[in-house]
Write a structure and sequence with these properties.
The complex is a heterodimer. By secondary structure, chain A is of the alpha+beta class. Chain A contains eleven helices and 21 strands. Bound molecules: adenosine-5'-triphosphate and magnesium ion. Chain A: GO terms for molecular function: ABC-type transporter activity; ATP binding; ATP hydrolysis activity.
């Protein structure tokens, strides 16, 4: 087990393209770090530099206090689960899992003990003598995990391990990975595309864009205190709505009426004529369903609803709005970068599933102005970010992690003790 | 498929099989005809005769045929083994590494493969006589390598390209050296390719006639195809047709056995299950 430190890591491929650009990231011992970002932003490249499959152009990679820039993969003692699993098709499941141990010239009975242990954890016991070709996707995924956990590696690296599985299996494997990581308490770096995986698995999430780190924070901080337009638009589904706004004292004039914000936040907006307000879908509500005492905390406005989507437990309404060209262009660039479908200038708002708001009609909405963020449309910077509140969220998450690791490890050792006791008494 | 289609396919297949196998059947039939029976104007021998086989194994042709058989086996097996080994490394490098001159190597191999043998055999004859390789096993193994290596490199690099890069990287992360990754992961996966290549290389060497007849003079190195050309009848007035046919049947057998033996190893899709779900 070890911490991973990256200092100003740069990767330029042969054609001079900087796939990773000046990345500095500290991953604590035992931490679960997620790398996310749109396709081609350099996530895999970064992971492959950690494991040693890709040369580092410049910068320092330090694992467990040791500089590893020039070490071959086998000397770094990390284990990796590849996106396509990369199982050895000519070996049985048993031999696949045992492969790293065989290479380390471990005696046979020790190999058997470890493989049995790993296959117990992953419920692969019945398949040890089968070949990978005859296994299902989820089973193959578990074999790949088995090969990773069987040896005492310094850290686990995962490159989109669940992307080939169907939704149900993905959910199942997600909890499995989380449980395993907590139990083993091993430093983990996990690359993913998937919002849910990023938000649920990670202690901290690192958002990359074009080879550069945008923000490293706990999922909650990313969601509530994003540093810029990119992070705000990337995290959350359905995505955050961005409305054009012009400031007037403590008020922001938007297509959805005036929004009043606290004086302390408004003071940060000086010197801008045109702004962008970011409002998450769930900060909206059908005004008729908002309790009286909550109403003054936000503002109400009337708008025509284009489409509604009723999903049983929730409901979404789409409200078109007008925006000046500067804002539309900015939004189009953003949506292109996020691989989103063409982002039309419409807001997605989440309303109660019992709401009777109908398509094509005008309706009254309420929006909670306490949590809106205001962005500079040119630089994308979040002008109202509260760094302290964000840091507090991440600090709480770190504390949670330490507790969880301790708890699951004490539970695991307790299990072992009772297991040992029953074995002894038998 | 409709019955009509099936019948048509069956007929077409039968025609092709007949077209391909008829000459072989003819040779087999000829090999069982006694010399006096050769021109009996019918496909089948009038009486089954082992005379030709006796001639090449124990009779007057045996001191020509038996050493040639031994030479052919030895030379072809050695040439095949060397060419497979060299081709394996070359093809691995071509499939995996990016180095300047990669296309040059591949195109050179192609040029060598299509270079007319007949045009280099005379200079080679002179050279071999001067340096003492004439009429020796190495004297044939070397030119055979020039025939078998290019095609081996081409087929094997195609096979290596099929093996996912990740296999090797996974092995390296698991703690293997480059050599261990090659030996424990790549070679087993490439085995079908190696066997296919070995068969092709063996055939090419086994079938060679020009080098065999030009670069040898005695049974020290003369291979079977060359020896067949030197068969004579029992008397000056008899054609050696029967003996040649019998020898031809005999030399076909190892080839058939080889294919049957290796066929089971050439299982397509051995890499199934390596990747994805
Ligand atoms: N071998 C290579 N040579 C040149 N450029 C490369 C090479 N591999 C990757 N790149 C470039 O580096 C950038 C980052 O690639 P990388 O594979 O790390 O992306 P990624 O974030 O993992 O994307 P995805 O989510 O699609 O897997 C891409 O723009 C890609 O074009
Ligand atoms: Mg990738």
């Amino acid at each position: 087990m070890a911490s991973i430190e990256m200092k100003n890591i740069v990767k330029q491929y042969g054609d001079g393209f900087p796939a990773v650009n000046d990345v500095s990231l500290d991953i604590a011992d035992g931490e679960f770090m997620i790398l996310v970002g749109p396709s081609g932003c350099g996530k895999s490249t970064l992971l492959r530099m950690i494991v040693g499959l890709e040369d580092i152009t410049s910068g320092e990679m330090i694992i467990g206090g040791k500089r590893v820039n020039d070490l071959a993969p086998r000397d770094r003692n990390l284990s990796m689960v590849f996106q396509n699993y990369a199982l050895y098709p000519h070996m049985t499941v048993y031999e696949n899992i045992a492969f790293p141990l065989r290479l380390a010239k471990m005696p046979d009975d020790e190999v058997r003990r470890r493989v049995t242990e790993a296959s117990d954890v992953l419920e692969l016991k019945d398949h040890l003598e089968r070949k990978p070709a005859n296994l299902s996707g989820g089973q193959r995924q578990r074999v790949a995990m088995g090969r990773a956990i069987v040896r005492q590696a310094e850290a686990f690296l995962f490159d989109e391990p669940l992307s080939n599985l169907d939704a149900k299996l993905r959910g199942q494997m997600r909890t499995e990975i989380s449980r395993l990581q907590r139990r083993l308490g091993i430093t983990t770096v996990y690359v993913t595309h998937d919002q849910t995986e990023a938000m649920t698995l990670g202690d901290r999430v690192c958002v990359l864009r074009k080879g550069k780190i945008q923000q490293v924070a706990s999922p909650r901080e990313l969601y509530e205190q994003p540093v810029n337009l990119f992070v705000a638009g990337f995290i959350g589904s359905p995505p955050m709505n961005f409305l054009p706004a012009t400031p007037e004292g403590n008020r922001l004039k938007t297509p959805f009426g005036d929004i009043e914000i606290e004086a302390s936040r408004a003071s940060k907006l000086g010197g801008h004529d045109l702004l962008m307000v970011g409002i998450r879908p769930e900060y909206f509500e059908d005004a008729s369903l908002v309790e009286e005492h909550k109403r003054p905390l936000g503002s109400t406005f009337r708008a025509r609803v284009d489409v509604t989507e009723w999903l049983g437990d929730s409901q979404y309404a789409y409200i078109p709005y007008e925006a000046p060209e500067a804002i539309t262009n900015q939004l189009r660039d953003l949506s292109r970068e996020l691989d989103a479908e063409e982002l039309r200038t419409q807001a997605i708002v989440s309303i109660d599933s019992t709401s009777r708001i109908r398509e094509g009609r005008e309706a009254e909405f309420w929006l909670d102005s306490r949590k809106v963020h205001v962005f500079d449309p040119e630089t994308g910077e979040n002008l109202t970010r509260d760094a302290e509140a964000g840091a507090e969220l991440t600090r709480l998450a770190t504390q949670d992690r330490v507790e969880q690791v301790e708890e699951s490890q004490s539970r695991a050792s307790a299990e072992q003790e009772t297991g040992g006791a029953t074995a002894a008494s038998a | 498929m409709s019955t009509r289609k099936k019948v048509l396919w069956g007929v077409a297949a039968a025609v092709i099989i007949f077209y391909c196998l008829f000459p072989i059947a003819w040779i087999v039939s000829l090999s069982f005809k006694a010399p006096s029976d050769l021109s009996n104007q019918s496909f089948f021998p009038s009486a089954l005769s082992w005379e030709n086989y006796e001639l090449i194994f124990t009779g007057s042709a045996s001191d020509l045929f038996l050493p040639a058989l031994r030479n052919s086996f030895g030379i072809c097996l050695i040439a095949t083994a060397i060419s497979c080994l060299l081709a394996m490394f070359a093809a691995y490098a071509i499939a995996r590494l990016d180095f300047p001159g990669k296309t040059l190597i591949l195109s050179t191999a192609l040029v060598v493969a299509i270079f007319p043998v007949i045009s280099i055999v005379t200079p080679l004859f002179n050279l071999w006589r001067n340096i003492g390789l004439y009429d020796t096993w190495p004297g044939l193994i070397i030119p055979y390598l020039s025939l078998t290596l290019p095609i081996s490199i081409w087929t094997m690099s195609a096979f290596f390209r099929e093996i996912p890069w990740e296999m090797e990287q996974a092995a390296q992360v698991d703690g293997a050296t480059t050599w261990q990754a090659f030996r424990k992961v790549i070679v087993p996966l490439a085995a079908p390719g190696v066997f296919t290549t070995a068969i092709i290389a063996f055939f090419i060497a086994w079938n060679d006639f020009i080098y065999g007849i030009s670069l040898t003079s005695t049974e020290a190195a003369r291979p079977v195809p060359a020896a067949l050309g030197l068969f004579t009848g029992a008397s000056q007035f008899e054609e050696p047709t029967g003996a040649i046919s019998a020898a031809a049947v005999i030399v076909t057998i190892p080839v058939v056995v080889l294919v049957l033996l290796f066929q089971r190893r050439i299982v397509a899709g051995l890499t199934n299950g390596a990747v994805k779900g």
